UniProtKB/TrEMBL annotation:
UniProt entry keywords in alphabetical sequence: Lyase, Pyridoxal phosphate
Entries under Gene3D superfamilies matching the protein: Aspartate Aminotransferase, domain 1 (3.90.1150.10), Type I PLP-dependent aspartate aminotransferase-like (Major domain) (3.40.640.10)
Protein name in the entry: Threonine-phosphate decarboxylase
Species in which this protein is naturally found: Enterocloster bolteae
Pfam family, one: Aminotran_1_2
Domain of life: Bacteria
InterPro entries in the record: Aminotransferase_I/II_large, PyrdxlP-dep_Trfase, PyrdxlP-dep_Trfase_major, PyrdxlP-dep_Trfase_small
Length: 374
């Protein structure tokens, strides 16, 4: 099966990976120490707590919600597929472009999936009123949506949706009996992230399901740890029954508790990445690319078609030949191979990427008819 995501460093000889949106500050030392302690205490030789009680209690305190509203999983993707299996929806709605796992999960249970396309002439920002109208219209036609997926901020664009607009969509879904799954896995990278999160609205909307993960912020992608929050206890119980037991390892649970103790880590991360994102965005713009206004830890950009800097897909291939991996967005619905996404790293790595991109463009200008050899 074709690999659908960033981070495919195993099938290719990659020196620098800019395709996976992982915190460049790396895993907090407290998390590394917790993992070492797990080995010393032989946690790996024991079955993990299938309900993740200690981790759920820590998450409940962290978010200010009841721990019985929380379910943990083997990454957010595990819960996305589990949610589809628990709901068994007939029709679902996802934004396009968006994380491909939503559609894959829905199709795995035979759900018909429709797209709500984000408009390029609006910088791919969500028209919340328009999406609410789409959900309302489907219900009026007698073909209601059972579940709606929304990524905030959007992946791959990095553009957030205002909390009031998400609440507007949640209200529409609640009224029409549809579940709204809001993926907030990148929300912690936003300035004033709490002003975007709808976790405080869980008591108000029983059909609201919020997805979170430790993967990106805490650089724990290999440990696989995500969680969902929902006030519908019945749904959480169904979700628990359709998933395999012991899906979250003991070390992952210990790492999660330790990560939550790093209270200033997110703030330090945002402070570092904000400046680097602005510098990297300006550098891409100076190279002639169209850069969209991401507020996350990654940038979304494209070749300006009127300038014809490179043929579609050429930048990806040229950098791959230099053992540098960026994310081609060709397989996102609504996009093509002229769109790319790169993660924001630390200054030295960002500058290295710009140097290599500059060389690609200079080579292209000096040899316009050259064929890609990668």
């Amino acid at each position: 099966m074709e690999y659908q995501h960033g981070g495919d460093i195993y099938s290719q000889d990659i020196q620098m990976d800019y395709s996976a949106n992982i915190n460049p500050l790396g895993m907090p030392e407290a998390v590394s120490q917790a993992l070492r302690d797990c080995l010393e205490r032989e946690v790996c030789s024991l079955y993990p707590d299938s309900r993740c009680e200690r981790l759920r209690q820590a998450l409940g305190r962290h978010h200010g919600v009841e721990d019985k509203w929380i379910i943990c999983g083997n990454g957010a993707a595990d819960l996305i597929f589990g949610l589809a299996a628990a709901l068994r929806p007939v029709r679902g709605l996802v934004t396009a472009p968006a994380f491909s796992e939503y559609e894959q999960a829905l199709r795995s249970v035979g759900c018909r999936t429709d797209y709500y396309y984000l408009r390029e002439d609006g910088d791919f920002a969500l028209d919340a009123a328009g999406m609410c109208g789409c959900v309302q219209e489907a219900a009026e036609r007698g073909r209601p949506y059972d579940v709606v997926f929304l990524c905030n901020p959007n992946n791959p664009t990095g553009i957030p949706v205002k909390k009031e607009e998400v609440e507007q969509l949640a209200d529409t879904c609640e009224r029409l009996g549809a579940y709204l799954a809001v993926d907030e896995c990148f929300c912690d990278f936003l300035d004033n992230s709490e002003s975007y999160s709808v976790i405080p609205d869980l008591a108000r909307f029983t059909h609201l399901f919020v997805l979170k993960a430790f993967t990106k912020l805490y650089a724990m992608a290999g440990l696989r740890l995500g969680y969902g929050l929902c006030s519908d206890r019945g749904l959480l119980e169904r979700l628990q029954t359709v998933r395999q037991p012991w899906s979250v390892s003991g070390p992952a649970q210990c790492a999660g508790v330790a990560a939550l103790g790093e209270t200033d880590f997110a703030e330090r991360t945002r402070a570092v990445l904000k400046g680097e994102r602005e510098r990297l965005s300006a550098a891409l713009h100076d190279l002639g690319f169209q850069v969209y206004p991401s507020q996350a830890n990654y940038l979304f950009f494209r070749d300006r078609e009127e300038d014809g800097i490179l043929e579609k897909g050429r930048l990806y291939q040229e950098l791959l030949g230099r053992r540098i991996l960026i994310r081609s967005c060709a397989n996102y619905p609504g996009l093509d191979s002229s769109f790319y996404r790169i993660c924001v790293k630390l200054r030295q790595d960002n500058e290295q990427l710009i140097r290599e991109m500059t060389r690609v463009l200079e080579r292209r200008k000096s040899c316009p008819n050259i064929q890609n050899q990668s």
